[in-house]
Amino acid sequence: MGVGIAQVVGLALVTTIVLLILRQEKPVLAVLLSIVFSVVIFTIMMGKMAAILDVMQELSRRSASNYFFFNTMLKILGIAYLGEFAAAICQDAGEQAVAKKVEFAAKIIITVLTLPIMVAILESLMEILPG
Q1: Which residues contact 29 (CB under 8 A, 6 or more apart)?
Q2: Distance CA 114, CA 85 (A)
Q3: Share of the chain residues as helix, strand and coil, in percent rounded to the nearest 5
Q4: Read out DSSP for 66-90?
Q5: What is the pLDDT of residues 53-71, one digit of tens each?
Q6: Cα-flanking dihedrals φ and ψ of residue 102, to 5°?
Q7: Is this prediction's pTM over 0.90?
């Protein structure tokens, strides 16, 4: 049986209460608990992400779509989620500057990955437009 939103919310509420108590007495342990919670949630959700990827791959296969575009979209999604996840951990640790750099790096990597798609779209448009 998979973990549902009720379990995630319950774990989050318990963790939040413990964090409120720990932050006053042992701030270092509070940061550590926050990171552990983040890793646990990420690990739990990986199974759900795998299911999403399986469905997307099957749809792509059935529609005979270009696998290059499909793989690029998956990479972009992965980078977006991992970048946001890492930035949130940095923010939880009180490192907003590091979090902003992670977000910046993720945006640049996503932009680089979209370049071939943008070029393909522009080339298609140029073929259609009268010269």
Answers
A1: 22
A2: 21
A3: 90, 0, 10
A4: -HHHHHHHHHHHHHHHHHHHHHHHH
A5: 888 778 777 776 667 788 8
A6: -65, -45
A7: no
